[in-house]
Amino acid sequence: MDDFFIYLGLGFDHITDPSGYDHVLFVTALCAVYTLQQWRQVLILVTAFTIGHSITLALATLQLITYKTEVIELLIPITILITAITNFFFQEPGYRSLPVSRQTNRPWRYGLALVFGLIHGMGFSNYLRSLLGREADIVKPLLAFNIGLEIGQLVIVGFILTLAYLALNLLRTSRLRWTLILSGFVAGMAASLIINNEYLGELMK
């Protein structure tokens, strides 16, 4: 059981690690258009991302699929940039009488989160496989690591939605301005990661 909590902690630390902020940026981009009142929609969105990355995390860790690590490291910031760019088309709801859940109904975002989750899962597996080494039983560490990822992911979501609440209700910032500022920051960071990617540099030669 001790090993379970060790890998759970490693999963949590991996997704919340400030030095490896690419996954944090992606979750931030996913949540940028939502408010604390829309936590149910965010939960569905995060669940879609979870399903996606859980599938490829398991398949890649069990070595049932193979891929080039450098390609995944390039695709991850691309998914972040695309998600942030979609937020630029956000339109602040004009009908305040509508329920909040109906003001920003974007079913296609769930599919986007699922597909991009598949890519991020392969990125998670790189780290997990380096931890496992020649471990005989990898099912329990895989489960624990994935749960740790989800706990860390929920912490990030809670933090972003709390910031949104403070910005919208205390600072009286408009939703449009909040979305554009946050998404612009994420897009800039993602673009920097893409530009500085070594594999892309090799392709451009």
TrEMBL record:
The chain crosses the membrane at residues 20-36, 43-65, 71-90, 110-131, 151-171, 178-195. It comes from the Bacteria. Signal peptide: none annotated. The keyword Transferase does not apply. Keywords: Membrane, Transmembrane, Transmembrane helix. The keyword Ribosomal protein does not apply. This is HupE/UreJ family protein. It comes from Spirosoma liriopis.
